[in-house]
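Postdoc handover notes: sequence design on the structure in folder B. Input tokens:
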């Protein structure tokens, strides 16, 4: 035991400590330089590498650039308080009351209450300024992370741009577009591990909803982990969240294959492992993205062109999008959803009344077409089809 202790002590030499400090300082300088130059590509690379942006001080410089909000601050603007109430504010209050469960864990009760008040203000500001957005349970988990990482003057515009331009699909009138995104996960699993995909295919991918909906903020219990994960998620395309989830699933291969019951499998998939090695998972997800880009996945063709998955495909272009652009995309998706719902209703009614419709078709057609033996045979076939 003494030998082991001495060996460990020998590994932690002053030279090693100095070298570690030097590496950190070098990366800090690299982040600051990339922020000064607003080099999106460099920031993307840094966010994937070990440690991400290292600290909240550096995140407060990098995140606004990646979100395109660095040119705007709202230090003393309280005008949102005089805007009409958003229809979802009662639900916001319920969620805020149960916020900050896992972190920060070094605050007094009075400090936590102050943070809850700030969180309520942040969410309310975003919703009143963008009243077309629909609040969803779990949105407060995302807002918590930005509130803790960013100073007050940067939070409002950063959260607005994140909401309208990055997670807009989750703030539509229904979660149908969010659920459509989940079908990219089975496609990814099938491309990488056919056995695991077949094993999981007994379950619809709804098990990924809580994590993808909240950018993992609902289930990750350490602030250092979720802040580091947000580095990558904010720096990359919105679809990257699905790649991270898939890599976590692939890392749990043996555990998941051991579950035979669909209910147990769904429960296991709905919970993240307690100790995520994010510095390994994130680069693995980036490599998975390179080898199997979203355009190669079957479900990609069913994703709306107005979805955040496609409008954020170029992070550089995202930084140039305006909140008004996001609202236009939102309205386009709402119209698509309405037409799709209308089409499904019409199809359902038509199928339920197919016998009557076919009878009318046959009757009208008979007026204009001569009743040859060929036509009579066709009529008989159509009649049988309608009766089936």
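Designed sequence:
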């Amino acid at each position: 035991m003494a030998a082991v202790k001495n060996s460990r002590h020998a590994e932690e030499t002053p030279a090693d400590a100095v070298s570690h400090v030097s590496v950190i300082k070098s990366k800090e300088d690299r982040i600051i330089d990339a922020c000064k130059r607003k080099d999106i590509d460099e920031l993307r690379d840094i966010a994937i590498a070990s440690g991400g942006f290292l600290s909240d001080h550096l995140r407060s410089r990098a995140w606004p650039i990646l979100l395109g909000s660095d040119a705007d601050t709202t230090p003393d603007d309280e005008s949102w308080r005089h805007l009409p109430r958003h229809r979802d504010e009662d639900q916001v209050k319920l969620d805020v009351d149960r916020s900050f469960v896992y972190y920060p864990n070094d605050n007094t009760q009075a400090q936590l209450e102050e943070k809850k008040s700030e969180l309520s203000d942040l969410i309310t500001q975003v919703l009143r300024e963008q009243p077309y957005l629909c609040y969803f349970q779990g949105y407060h988990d995302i807002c918590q992370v930005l509130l803790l990482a960013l100073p007050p003057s940067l939070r409002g515009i950063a959260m607005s741009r994140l909401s309208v331009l990055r997670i807009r699909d989750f703030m539509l009138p229904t979660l149908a577009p969010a659920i459509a995104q989940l079908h990219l996960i089975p496609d990814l699993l099938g491309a990488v591990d056919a056995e695991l995909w077949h094993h999981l295919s007994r379950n619809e991918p709804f098990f990924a909803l809580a994590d993808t909906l909240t950018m993992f903020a609902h289930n990750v219990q350490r602030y250092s982990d979720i802040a580091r994960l947000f580095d990558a998620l904010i720096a990359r395309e919105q679809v990257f969240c699905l790649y991270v989830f898939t890599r976590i699933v692939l890392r749990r291969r043996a555990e998941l294959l051991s579950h035979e019951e669909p209910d147990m499998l769904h429960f296991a998939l709905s919970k993240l492992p307690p100790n995520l090695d994010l510095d390994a998972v994130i680069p693995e997800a980036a490599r998975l993205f390179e080898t199997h880009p979203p355009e190669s996945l079957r479900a990609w063709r069913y994703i709306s062109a107005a979805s955040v998955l496609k409008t954020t495909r170029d992070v550089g272009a995202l930084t140039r999008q305006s909140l008004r652009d996001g609202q236009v995309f939102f309205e386009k998706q709402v119209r698509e959803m309405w037409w799709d719902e209308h089409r499904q209703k019409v199809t359902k009614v038509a199928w339920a009344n197919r016998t009557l419709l076919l009878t009318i078709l046959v009757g009208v057609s008979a007026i204009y077409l001569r009743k040859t033996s060929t036509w009579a045979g066709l009529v008989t076939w159509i009649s049988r089809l309608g009766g089936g």
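Context for whoever picks this up: Residues 1-10 have pLDDT under 50 and may be disordered. Don't rerun without checking with the PI first.
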